[in-house]
Design a protein that fits this description.
This protein has six helices and 17 strands. By secondary structure, it is of the alpha+beta class. Strands 7, 8, 9, 10, 13, 14, 15, 16 and 17 form a nine-stranded mixed β-sheet that branches. Strand 13 and strand 14 form a beta hairpin. Bound molecules: uracil (URA). Uracil binds next to helix 5.
């Protein structure tokens, strides 16, 4: 830091969490500046100030880190959880830089989750205006027919608003279940589950397999890897 800046911006820049999550940390009284709790948003910090979160000193992060995690079910996509649930941070304990989740997956969804300490990267990947495609594979109860698939593709009403055009394809069907691949570029709350609910085929299991051209591949469940420079360039350039 070369000059005074807002505390939440400084924390995000240091890779503590996203700007919004940092605001929450401040409001929860978990941030101290020179040993005193600062819980007012917009407070400024200067280069000489000593900032800590939960008593742990915050260091400026200069190296940008970009990883992908194959998130298992049962982990929340936050840096900390008030209800004491397991968080994705526990799965990347062996990385020696702070990173935070880029976007979200529900606790009971598995698959591709990007994590980084780069705020610009987070905006590129998650901002709706960038229309980043996200590919999900859902096991659903029942076997949707051609008309059901078309409904998903043309848009269905969830929470009173129609979803944008999507791509849907049945990959396999067995007995009373089908595996359907759905590609969407919006990121509404529990969107995939709600879309399938709206056509009468509840999701039994959900996995995200790609974000844009970045694919999960055969990364084992619960494991992470660094993105390669081409992958980072692609996502930043979108
Ligand atoms: N849609 C969902 O329903 N859940 C997710 O985790 C992601 C997309």
């Amino acid at each position: 830091m070369n000059e005074e800046m807002r505390l939440q911006k400084y924390l995000a820049q240091c890779g503590v969490a996203s700007r919004r999550a940092c605001e929450k940390l401040i409001e929860e009284g978990r941030v101290t500046v020179n040993g005193a709790v600062v819980n007012i948003l917009g407070s400024k910090v200067a280069p000489r100030d000593k900032v800590a979160v939960d008593g742990v000193p915050v260091k400026e992060e200069s190296k940008k880190v970009y990883i992908m995690l194959n998130k298992p079910e049962g982990y929340v996509t936050t840096v900390s959880d008030e209800q004491g649930r397991s968080t994705v941070m526990e799965l990347i304990g062996d990385i020696n830089q702070r990173v935070y989740p880029v976007g979200r997956l529900d606790c009971n969804t598995e698959g591709l989750l990007l994590m980084s300490n780069d705020g610009d990267f987070t905006v590129k990947v998650t901002h709706p205006s960038h229309r980043m495609n996200k590919v999900y594979q859902a096991v659903v109860a029942g076997v949707p027919n051609h008309f059901d698939i078309e409904k998903l593709e043309h848009g269905v009403y969830i929470d009173g608003r129609k979803t944008a055009k999507a791509k849907a394809q049945i990959i396999s069907a067995e007995g009373k279940r089908a595996l359907v691949e759905l590609t969407i570029h919006e990121g509404r709350n529990r969107q995939v589950r709600k879309m399938f609910d709206s056509i009468g085929y509840p999701v039994l299991h959900l996995r995200r397999v790609a974000i844009g051209n970045i694919i999960l591949g055969n990364l084992p469940l619960g494991k992470w890897r660094h993105l390669n420079p081409n992958e980072v360039k692609y996502l930043m350039g979108k």
